[in-house]
Each structure stands twice: as structure tokens, then as C-alpha cells.
Amino acid sequence: MLALGGSLTPAHADKVTRTAECQGDWLPGTPTAEDVMKGEISLVGLPPYKLGRKIDWGASPYKNRSWEYVFQSLRWMGTLVVAYENSGEEAYLDRATEIAKDWVAHNKRGARGTKSYVWKDHPVSLRTQPLLCLSRHVNESWLKDSLAEHAKLLADPRLYKKGHNHGMDQDIALMGIGCRYGRKDWSNLASSRLTGTVKLDVDSQGALMEQAPRYAVYVYGRLQVAITNMKACGRKVPSEIGKRAEALKDFIAHSTMPNGYMVPIGDGSAETEPKMETGTPKHEVKTYRAGYVFGRTAWGKPESAYYSIRFGPGLKFHGHEDHLGVTYYAQGRDILVDAGFHSYEKSSYRYWTLSPEAHNVPTVVGARFRPRTASKLVATRYGDDRQSFKLTDKAYGVSRTRSVLVNHGDDLMAVRDTASGGKKIRNLWRFDHSLKLISKGGGKVVLGDGKFKVTLLQFGASCDRVGGQQVQRGGKLGWVSPTYLSKQPTNVVVSPAAKSLLTVIVPGTDSPKVSCSGKKLTVDGISIPTTAF
């Protein structure tokens, strides 16, 4: 076992010292200390679980991986130590000590009966915080030995998750143990690794490279913890960490829709609200090399139009196969949405949510999809009231190209899809689950919710209306998961196969005025080129 030195601060019945290890924004909202004392814990939004006095450390009541990881993180035990610091009530500390000691006794690494996930990188990292917090008030060998075992794994290069938020958590945990017990070798390793991981995970523009914007909020928060801990440990904060943490705020702002929630791209649900001060970026439209375009009519207005477009490196970490995909928000409403994030469970539905069919993308008829294919943004044109973009890739073996035009003021999105080699394409359009089908026919589909209506129109290369759209609600395609573990039927418009498709989305009406002259389509007075944007 690795040696740990240093002294511990004993608890005093009349006065309890509040410590940096225990105070701070690291505890989940549930369960509360009172819940834990009653023997009932609620994790990751699932129903309460009766913990009891004698804990079953192999428990998995919901067969949910996230629940298992959070259970083994022991952060819920940490709520008791924090409550002890804040109240001075010895009962909180006694129960926390009893829980932690029992966990250590029944979860020896590599022992028969210990679940393998108990010693995975993330539970190890997250568990370090409550154990360090406890160590400020409990001076016993079993606790010091357990923290040494944690440090041994955290320092192992074979287990390090470089370029990922898990790696950041590993570094924060290792630095915490190193600083707590005066082990500079651990602190130095954590500091040097963290700089490299941050540079891989957050690019120079401030974009998170994990392909799910909602994780940017988590990463920003963890970097604040890392910076605070470095300073408390008397260490200089590498300038690159501070710069990229600051740049993340702009990325978070751009990826937050006018309704205050983050656009649910990749493993991100529609209920993610940043709840942090980002400031107001200088521009309404931002293109990130990491593979995002975010645009809006104006800042600070819930009725502002907003859109996102995906391209860039192939799928990794928390990404989905959503390249060339778009989302659209207008007039205070979600219009076009992705299928969303359901969970990390290894289910067929989870894997379907990763697939192209769960996103607003073009597919090449008769061609096999090639996973993890990168895509490129090859042209952009910015204007105050109109922006256009052109993207392409070979995810189906031939070039598929999508041009996107967004008009502001008079809200409208137009998308043109083609494929090379004479191949036909088909595209999918997933509408928010609140929008119900009203009518379809003649290349026109109308959906609505009360007085609000939205119209989808489809045309060929020469302004000819393309009919034959199918609308699925439920079935194989018509699903959306706006929140964790939810699954709701929604309407998905499936286009017919064609060599060229121009799709126009018109919010706020069921009867747009359409005319065509030469190579120019006009919808409610808005002119759209029929061949290219």
C-alpha cells in the first residue's frame, strides 16, 4: 500500500471547522442528508431506494448504469459530512463514518463479490471527494489506506482518460489526495496531465470536443474546481487552463437556445439549463471548427429564431451520427429537433438514438452508411437577416451535399440535398412532439399545436413540387426523448427518394404563398435559389 503522511484535523463537539474539501458545489441535489439518515436515497432522478441500515453494496434496483455509478461514488454519503460541518451534529458524522467504513470493508479492489464497475475510472474519481471530506474529521488507517488505493489507480497511466471530462475528474481527485497528504509527485502529475487533457477537450475557440454541448457546462464547472484547488494547494494555475475555461463560456452561450435550455445535440437532453453567467457574445452567429454552427436572430429575446448545424470530426465520446443535421427554433417554439438523449443503457433504443435515422439528415438511397465519417463545412455566407452554409461528406461512399439557408425577420429555413453519381437521396424531418399532423399532400405537410402552425414544402431542382411524403408517429422513426429515460411519439416526415430535394420550413403559417420563376423560388415574399445557396 502507498504511504500517506501528514496530520488530520480532529472533530470538536463544540465547534466544527468548515473545510475546503467539504464545502463547495460538488454535491448532487438529491438525496438530502435527512434522506440518507432515514435510509432512503434517490439517484439520477429514479425513485427512492430503501438503503436500510445494513447496505447491500451490490444493489442495482433499476439495472441502470448511471444509478450504479452514482451509488458507488458515495457522494450521497458526503452529504452527511457536509451536514455535520454545518450543524455540528455528531450523528451525521457517525453515520457517514459507518457507511464509508462498511464500503471499504466490502469493496476491496479485485476481491470476489466486488462489482467491476466499482473501480472504474469515474466512480473512483468522484468517490475521492467525499472520502477526502470525511478524512478532515476522521483519522483512521482504513480511510487513509483507501485513499492511497484510489491514488494508485488515479496515477496509473493505463487507466487515464486523456482528452475527456473523466480525465479531468481523475486529475482533480489525484491532486486532492496529493495536496491533502503532501504528496507532490501526485500533485505534479495531476497538474501536468490536466493541461494536456484540457487542450484536447476544449479547443482554442472554446468548443468542447466531446460532441455534446451540455457537457461543456460540466467541464466548465470542473475546471473551476481544479483552478480553485490548485490555488488552495499553493500551485500556479497553467495559463492555458484559465484561457480555455473562459472561452468555454462563449460556447455555452452560443449553444443555449433562446428559451434558456441548451440545444440537445449528442448526449444532451432538452432539459439542460446552464444556470451560469456566460455574458453576451459579440456575434449572433458562430461557426466552430469542432463541428458546429449556432445562429440566432438576437440575444436576450425568447422569441428569437435559433438554429444549429452539425459537421466536423467523426463520432466519438458523447456524439451521435448527426452530421449535416439541423435543429430549428422559431417564434418561441421548438420546430425541428433531434431524437435526443435517453440514457447510457445498452439498449436497442439507446443505439437507435445515435443513428442517422434519429436526426434531421439526408440519406443516400441504396448505399451503406459508414459510421464515424468526418464532414466538412465548405462554404459560408453571413448576413444580418440571412445566413447560408454548404456541407459535404462521404458517409455513404459517395458525396452527399447539404446547403442550408436561414432567413430571419420573416422566419424560414431552406435546405437543399443532393448526392453525387446520380444517386437519389431521402431526408428525415423530426418535429417537436407538441406539433400534431394537420394535413399532407402535394408536397406540403402542415403540423400545429393550437393556433401555432408550421408548414413543410418540398421541391425538385426546377421548382417542381415533390409529393409522396410519409409521416410516422411512433413506429420505427417517430420517437423523441426530451428528458432522461423518457420516450415520446412524435411526427417525423420522410421524404420520397429524389436526385435533388429542396425542403422549406415555414413557421407560423399553414398557407404560405409560393411562386417560382426561373431558378428562384419565392415563399411569402422570400426569394430562395433552387439550385444553390
UniProtKB/TrEMBL annotation:
Residues 45-276 form the Heparin-sulfate lyase N-terminal domain. It comes from the Bacteria. One of its GO terms (molecular function) is lyase activity. Its main location: periplasm. Gene3D superfamilies: 2.70.98.70, Chondroitin AC/alginate lyase. Keywords: Lyase, Periplasm, Signal. It holds the Pfam family Hepar_II_III_N. GO terms for cellular component: periplasmic space. InterPro entries: Chondroitin_lyas (IPR008929), Hepar_II_III_C (IPR012480), Hepar_II_III_N (IPR031680). It is found in: Periplasm. Residues 314-492 form the Heparinase II/III-like C-terminal domain. This is Uncharacterized protein. It comes from Nonomuraea phyllanthi.
